[in-house]
């Protein structure tokens, strides 16, 4: 049984994101008291009465607006409505019925989906003074609620799950490759996702900072299942002027923590910047698979040496990402986009790869014979054996005689030998040193 999807829709500033955060149990959507803050759809996995479903928060719908962002917000909500099995239509119980509410209701009736009308901002047992006006909208189910005070949230969810099939307790989740698209504002992250999906799933415009939330988009390619996480453009702290952007930076780093593979998107016209280094460093420190994606490659004047020169610059500026493949693409023209998806799958497998202990120790033994370990004051480092302790990232435990004798350069040598024999392309490798028979220091 496919997981059910519930979309929360309505005009701006009626409390959709507050309801979403209340039901999801954590602060996922940005909540501010001015309209237009939630621009894209936000996803969360929710459980209620043994039903597991996906909840979607949407940008507010303003049906008659021609302004670019609001127009695209409306399209986002339309896609959410098309995707959803059940729709929560939220209105403001304090302001009463508006013309925009009527327009939204008209859109929903055409969708031919179950709709629950949530009359929000009603936190007492007394009806909203406009309660009976909302009957004009013709919705079969109506629940008065307060997302802020958590009033009648359970009643609202009860109405939602009435429209679900019986839950399948034996349903197993497929293996999903979680991919975070990270980088500075306006480098083309959302355009990359839209090109992969073949639809306008994420708002794209040339206004820096358009994507303020981290957006989860499920995606299937053949038998492979992905979760694409589009993050807000990460700005330097000196440029964060709004609370909204501060929330977005936190959420972007959280997206890195959730991901298996991170795509670091670099603007081909700007090259590697200090901010790129900071963003990449965060992903590296968290042990994520990494692909360096140079976007807008179509805008660069080229000769036979251009790509090699750019690659050399990246390897110099991001030396610690020596393991990360580099792909030059254009999300606008689709150049090399097919290779990008192949590389994501490959790097995900490398990040999760295990090496048999026997084979690992053969390689370590050969490495030690080829290049003798360092010594200090007559005492030589001895590497007894190693084993792989974890994946994502691949983590190896080396049992040695003395941690003080393990020089960084020799540990890098062992890492290079492991990479030469097993690959581990696109993923950092971690080492833990243990002194045999002594335990950890």
From TrEMBL:
PROSITE patterns: G_ENGA. SUPFAM superfamilies: P-loop containing nucleoside triphosphate hydrolases (SSF52540). One of its GO terms (biological process) is ribosome biogenesis. GTP 1 binds at residues 10-17, 57-61, 120-123. Pfam families: KH_dom-like, MMR_HSR1. Keywords: GTP-binding, Nucleotide-binding, Repeat, Ribosome biogenesis. Residues 4-168, 177-352 form the EngA-type G domain. GTP 2 binds at residues 183-190, 230-234, 295-298. One of its GO terms (molecular function) is GTP binding. Gene3D superfamilies: 3.30.300.20, P-loop containing nucleotide triphosphate hydrolases. Associates with the 50S ribosomal subunit. Belongs to the TRAFAC class TrmE-Era-EngA-EngB-Septin-like GTPase superfamily. EngA (Der) GTPase family. PANTHER family: GTPASE DER. HAMAP family: GTPase_Der. GTPase that plays an essential role in the late steps of ribosome biogenesis. NCBIfam families: GTPase_EngA, small_GTP. This is GTPase Der. It comes from Alkaliphilus serpentinus. The gene is der.
